Amino acid sequence: MTEERLQRVRFFEFLTDEERSEFMDGAQPTVFEAGAVIISEGEESSSLFVLTSGRVEVRKKIPGDRERSLAEIDADREATVVGERGLLGQNEASATVRASSRVEAIRVPREAFRRMISEGRPAAFKLSYRIARTLAQRLTRLDEEVVEAIRDLERRGETDLEAFRDRLITEWTV
Amino acid sequence: MSRTPSLDSIPLFERLSPDEQDELAELMEPASFGPGAFIYEEGGPEETLYVVTSGAVEVHKKVLPGRLHHLATMEAPTIVGEMGLLTEPRATASVTAKTPVEAHGISRDQLLEMLDEDSLAACKLVYEIGRTLAARMARTDESVANIIVQLERRNARPDHDPDVFGDRLLSEWGF
Asked: Is the Cβ pair A149, B165 closer than 8 Å?
C-alpha cells in the first residue's frame, strides 16, 4: 500500500517496484498531528520524509529573532519530499517543517539509507543521483541570486560593501 | 595509448570496486594544463568532468564589471566540472591551472548515458559528489543568511526593498 504511494513521488518514480520495496523495508509510516515539528531548524536532520497527505509549513529563522514563512506545501494535492539533504550530508537543517494539519508520511532514516549504500544496493545510489541533481540545481540558482544581490548592492554605491562581499564569497565554492 | 589512471587513491572513487574503477578509467583521457591555462572559461562549455590528480586549480568569477573575484583554490586530488554534469554544461565560473596540472577527463555525455542506464559505477561517483554538494549547500545557506542580515539592516532606506531580495533568496533554501 505504502509502496504504491511511493510510485508517483519525486525521487522514487524512477525506481523499479523491487527497488521501492527495498526502501520500504527500512522505512516507517509516520503520522504527525497538526502543530508537530517534522524537521527542526538548527538540529541535525537525519531522515527523508515522503509526505503523502496533509499540509505543512516551512519556516526559517531570520537573524534578529524573527521567523519567516518560506512555503506551504499541500501533500493532498501532490505527495512531496522533505529532508532529502539529510540523507547525503550531516548538517543542521536550515529550516523548520511543521505540520499545519494531520500529516501522513513515510520516513526513510539515514541509517537505513546508509546501510543500503554500504551494501552497494543500486536503489540507494539511484536515489542519490536524483538528490544530487536537485542540490546542484538549487546551488546554481542560489549562486545566481547571490551574484545578483552583490551587483544590486554595488549599484547603490554603498561604501561598506567590500567586507560584506568578502564574507559572502568566502564560503562560496564551485 | 593513454595511460590508465589509478583511481583508488582518490577519495571520490573509494567506494567503487576495482571493476567499477576500471569501467570509469577506460573512458578517461589524460589531460595536462600549464600554469594559467583555462580548464573552463566562465560562460563557455563545461562538457568534460576532470579528475585532477596533481597540481592546484583556481576558481574565478566575474561578479562586478572589470574585476575577477577569486572564489576558491583547490589542490589535487579533486574533481572539477561536477556542476556541469548535474546541471547545464556551461561554466558559471572560470577554472584555471595555478600550477602544472595533471588530470583525467571524462565526457559529460558519456557519464550521463551511464547514469541513464543505471550504471552502478557512475551512480557511486555521483553519490560521493552529492555528499560534497550537501556540505556545500550548508555553507551557502550560511552565506545567504549573512546577505539577509545586511539587507534587513538597510530596511529603513526608502529606495530599497529588502523583502523582495530576502524572499527570492529564501525561496531557494534547501533543507
From this structure: yes
Q: List phi, psi (to 5°) of A104.
A: -105, 135
- Whether the pLDDT of residue B12 is over 70: the answer is yes
Q: Which of B124, B133, B152 sits opposite A62 (nearest CB)?
A: B152
| pTM over cut 0.90 | no
Element housing B26 (H / E): none
Q: Which of residues 48-107 of A touch B (CB under 8 A)?
A: 58, 60, 62-64, 68, 70-71, 82-83, 85, 88-89, 91-95, 97
Closest CA to B145 of A34, A40, A66, A6: A66
Task: Report the percentage of chain B scoring pLDDT > 70.
Answer: 78
Write down the mean pLDDT value for chain B.
84
Number of other residues whose CB lies within 10 A of the CB of residue B103: 28
Query: For residues B115 and B123, is the Cβ–Cβ distance under 8 A?
Result: yes
Read off the pLDDT band of B27 (50, 70, 90).
Answer: very high
**ipTM, interface predicted TM-score of the complex:** 0.82
Q: In what order do the strands lie in the sheet with B56-61?
A: B38-40, B94-97, B56-61, B69-75
Let me know how many helices (H) and strands (E) chain A has, helices first: 6, 8
Query: Which residue has better confidence, B147 or A17?
Result: A17
Grid coordinates standing for A161? 560593501
